[in-house]
Design a protein that fits this description.
Elements lengths: L1 H21 L1 H5 L2 H5 L5 E7 L48 E7 H12 L12 E12 L9 H15 L18 E11 L1 E9 L6 H19 L4 E9 L3 E4 L1 H6 L8 H15 L6 E8 L8 H13 L5 E7 L7 H9 L5 E6 L5 H9 L4
Helix pairs in contact: 6-11, 8-9
Length: 368
């Protein structure tokens, strides 16, 4: 019975995952899911799911093959169709239920659907964290670390040595001297750490819808990368004509009215990495979101130089996402395509919310 229940539970979970996958784009692009993080569990609406099973009725209630009747008589009372109460509707009914999933489970489904490869971190032996390990047995310690097996063996050895052990009545009673405790010590454990540096254009041409697209996409990028590292740090840079490091809330809510100088953000990002995150020890990710506007005066060329000399050599991945805006020229993506070529540079055009999943696949599809 337990095996059958477990089999049905697994089957139900597979059906739920399939239903979520069918409507994955809508689930992922719903901004309200991000706001319900709390304990990392969210409610996902899916069509009512019923696992098929036999239902038994009471005996002698009639039915096919039961009760009186002649050969060829239609099923039903006197062969007449039975009417129901109420008026007929003009649309099929649909039953919806909500299932609870963790954000990480939803990210795993996203990874399966987009066929995202697992990330292979670099610098896994460069950073360490303290890790407690059980290393032996000792005579003193807290009761929570008492070793029953070693205590029993000590008691048995003592009784055998003293000749009080009776094989016909094998009773072993430990005394205080027999009690043993597990011992432990703290050892450094190698880990792989990563940092994500998000950059966003907050000039007047980036509206609320563009910022919401950035917020949703960066959330799922963050969640997927976090699943592959023991520690993950995030830094946020906003820029118009000048760049500033800000906190997460400010990153998604700031809006300026000035022009755009993208090189200011790239220069600040390079300074942060060179000061705080040695590339040989850290896995470094850059994601820059903009509507493609950039001032003239040679700023594009300055960006190209910063990318080639300071950012791309340090990065696992540099992703540039161009969020379409009616006010933005969209020229910067074309400039990058023309003048900068690198395996760890990924460019994505994000026209609207419908394009978020494709953009995530483009950014993360190399498994860097």
């Amino acid at each position: 019975m337990v095996k059958r229940i477990e089999r049905d539970r697994r089957r139900f979970e597979e059906i739920v995952r399939g239903k979520v996958k069918q409507d994955l784009k809508r689930h992922i692009t719903r901004g309200e899911l991000i706001g319900k993080r709390g304990n990392e569990i969210v409610a996902i609406p899916v069509p009512q799911i019923e696992i098929p099973h036999f239902r038994y009725g009471r005996k002698e209630m009639g039915g096919v093959g039961q009760g009186p009747g002649d050969i060829g008589q239609p099923i039903g009372s006197a062969g007449q169709p039975q009417g129901g109460d109420g008026e007929a509707g003009d649309a099929p009914g649909q039953h919806i239920r909500e299932v609870e999933m963790t954000i990480q489970e939803l990210a795993e489904i996203m990874g399966e659907e987009l066929e995202l490869p697992r990330i292979e971190p670099k610098g896994a032996e460069s950073l360490t964290v303290p890790k407690s390990r059980y290393t032996g047995i000792k005579r003193a310690g807290p009761e929570s670390l008492r070793s029953f097996k070693r205590t029993y063996k000590e008691a048995l050895k003592r009784q055998l040595a003293s000749g009080i052990y009776d094989p016909r009545r094998p009773r072993v009673v430990p005394v205080r001297e027999d009690v043993r405790y597990r011992s432990w010590k703290v050892e450094p454990e190698p880990i792989a750490n990563a940092v994500i540096i998000y950059m966003m254009d907050v000039s007047g041409s980036m509206g609320n819808e563009q910022k919401e697209i950035v917020r949703i996409e960066s959330f799922w990028i963050d969640t997927w990368i976090r699943a592959h590292y023991s520690g993950l740090e995030t830094r946020y840079i906003v820029h118009d004509a000048a760049a500033h490091e800000v906190d997460r809330e400010t990153f998604y809510t700031t809006r300026e009215s000035g022009g755009t100088r993208i090189s200011s953000a790239y220069s600040l990002a390079a300074e942060i990495v060179e000061r705080d995150y040695p590339p040989e020890e850290w896995n470094i990710y850059f994601f820059h979101f903009s509507d493609g506007d950039n001032w003239g005066g040679g700023d594009d060329e300055k960006c190209f130089r910063l990318l080639r000399e300071r950012l791309l050599p340090a990065a696992n991945l540099f992703g540039y996402g161009q969020v379409e805006s009616r006010y933005g020229s969209g020229q910067f993506l074309h400039a990058l395509e023309t003048h900068v070529e690198a395996e760890n540079l990924v460019l994505s055009r994000i026209e609207d919310r419908e394009a978020i999943l494709a953009s995530i696949k483009l950014f993360l599809g190399k498994g860097r």
